Amino acid sequence: MTPAAPVSAHRDQLGARAATIVFLAFALAYFLSALARAVTATLSPTLSAEFSLTAGDLGLLAGGYFFGFALTQLPMGKWLDQHGPRRVVLGFLSLAVVGCMAFAMAESFGGLLVARVLIGMGVSACLMAPLTGYRRWLAPAAQLRANSWMLMTGSFGMVAATLPVQWLMPFLGWRGLFWVLAGLVAVAMAGIAWRVPAWRHEAHDAGQAPVEEGYGIVWRNAYFRQMVPLGLVNHGGMVAIQTLWAGPWMVKVAGYTPAQAAGGLFAINLVMLLSFWVWGMVNPRLARQGFTPEALIGWGLPLSLLLLAAIVVMGPAAGWPMLALYCASCTMASQAQPAVALALPSAVAGRALSAYNLAIFAGVFVMQWALGLMIDGLRWLGWDEVAGFRGAFAVFGLCSVVAYGVFWRAWRRQPASTSR
Predict the structure, then answer these.
(1) How many CB atoms lie within 10 A of CB 91?
(2) What stretches in the chain show pLDDT beneath 50?
(3) What pLDDT sits at residue 147?
(4) I need a surface site. Which of 3, 15, 217, 372 has the fewest CB within 10 A?
């Protein structure tokens, strides 16, 4: 990652070498957080068999990560603005280590769920901390690239949570995997403590009035509000499918074996990795040519809606290639995240990013659990398992269309250029 040339007005901007080292330090932590997030999809057959989990239980267990994640977002945003990325992320990652060890020792569904919530809380700063720092340390075009490539490292973590986890299971078992994960998180903490710069606190930018405390300045921002429906439903729902329901769909609907499903998840996450790499390459050029994130979203995201509809219609014929295309098409929505930070003053970047991230992960938690409940509910009504999955995905698709419509209406009525 190479940032734009330093601008003298921004004395906190890092040079290319320092920015690359800081990026890599944060990237390891985010890689591990994504691995912890996605591993339940690969482990779902094992955990379901050992603890007799229903679809609703599995959705709640996977969603527990996102529930813990969402719990911390608002206080974390204020702490990031006040204390800086390094101090905040190290405190949170300590909790992640405890959560991984607790998961490895759990003897009941309740123990797994509590540990899962702790893990979610502990890794909740792994993306927001670097993005807050990039708002001050990098030029705007470099921020868009850094955001995409951070998400790319997350995709690396999700790739690692598929076939590599499947290969390690006979040697380590699922409990051993979480002991190893706890140790790797501790290594990532050491790297961040060593290489990430200290935070220089400023009450306000030179020549400007002090920025108000709290989240009022974020909630009132028109650009922020127009992006929230996409984060809550479209982006959050895609992550819910990628990190949990893609695996059960391949097994229960498309007829894959658990090993084949792990291979499918590997392929889906590899496609996501490549998608974010491409975004990181083209974003600076698109920004220079005047393409705004909201325009890319407005004209590009409908493709994801069409692909989701095709998955529902195809049913058993929709294997990993269709799921991969759907998830990749949803990466359009990820362009909103750095754009939200750029729409507000740098002094509130932590709060802006955390508030938007809260919308995303609240959506993930709701969608993961709701899809499981709908599948169980439709089966209770007499639908077979395949029809239950298709019905639940269809309801999610309708919600995605509504959320996109809300965004479209707000965008066309108030272009982002006037709201920034």
Answers:
(1) 15
(2) 1-9, 204-206, 416-420
(3) 81
(4) 15
Q: pTM score, two decimals?
A: 0.76
Rg of the Cα atoms in the chain:
21
Q: What is the predicted pLDDT for the residue at 214?
A: 77
Nearest alpha carbon to residue 373 among 151, 56, 144: 56
Amino acid residing at 218: V
Question: What residue has token string 């868009």?
Answer: 144
With both helix axes pointing from N to C terminus, report the angle between 302-314 and 320-329 in degrees, rounded to the nearest 10.
160
Q: Is 288 exposed, middle or buried (0-12, 13-18, 19+ CB in 10 A)?
A: exposed
Q: Cα 271–311–365 angle (5° rounding)?
A: 70
- HEC secondary structure over the chain: CCCCCCCCCCCCCCCHHHHHHHHHHHHHHHHHHHHHHHHHHHHHHHHHHHHCCCHHHHHHHHHHHHHHHHHHHHHHHHHHHHHCHHHHHHHHHHHHHHHHHHHHHCCCHHHHHHHHHHHHHHCCCCCHHHHHHHHHHCCHHHHHHHHHHHHHHHHHHHHHCCHHHHHHHHHHHHHHHHHHHHHHHHHHHHHHHHHCCCCCCCCCCCCCCCCCCCCHHHHCCHHHHHHHHHHHHHHHHHHHHHHHHHHHHHHHHCCCCHHHHHHHHHHHHHHHHHHHHHHHHHHHHHHHCCCCHHHHHHHHCHHHHHHHHHHHHHHHHCCHHHHHHHHHHHHHHHHHHHHHHHCCCHHHHHHHHHHHHHHHHHHHHHHHHHHHHHHHHHHHCCCCHHHHHHHHHHHHHHHHHHHHHHHHHHHHHCCHHHHC
Long-range contacts of 411-417 (CB under 8 A, 24+ apart): 411/226, 411/294, 411/298, 414/222, 414/226, 415/294, 416/223, 416/226, 416/292, 416/293, 416/294, 416/339, 416/343, 417/292
Contact assessment for residue 122 and residue 98, using Cβ atoms and an 8 Å cutoff: yes
Which two structure tokens, joined as six digits, stand for 401?
């269309």
CB atoms within 10 A of CB 384: 10
Burial of 164 (0-12, 13-18, 19+ CB in 10 A): middle
| pLDDT tens digits, one per residue of 157-211 | 888 887 788 889 889 999 999 999 999 999 999 999 998 887 776 554 445 555 5
Question: What is the pLDDT at residue 9?
Answer: 37
b/e per residue, 121-135, with b = 16+ CB within 10 A?
A: bbbbbbbbbbbbbbb
